[in-house]
Specification:
Elements (H helix, E strand, L loop, with lengths): L3 H9 L4 E6 L4 H12 L3 E7 L1 H10 L8 E4 L3 H13 L5 E4 L4 H9 L1
Helix pairs in contact: 4-5
Amino acid sequence: MKSISEIMQHAAGMGSGKIAVAAAHDDAVIQAVCEARRQGIAQSVLVGDGEKIRAMLAELGEDAANYEIVEAADDVECAEKAVACVVEGRAGFLMKGLLGTATLMRAVLN
């Protein structure tokens, strides 16, 4: 594979995975997960400020009902709940949103 479009085509052909996003209340993150859903690459569990997440999805013309949203009060809780989604098998991948790398890695190591 030599281009992003080739990678995207390959990923779309593999079926949809599920990503747990810690602190998903970030414009770039929401845009990325929406595009991944549209392309058939991945579904998402969006962990964070549910009100902000729903507003961001609405701005992109997305129906929040198509996304699993998990409320979390702060960065530590976002990280813990996203990691728990992976540990419990509700998601196969972990994605960092709008939180510090150290906070996310602490939850992973715990």
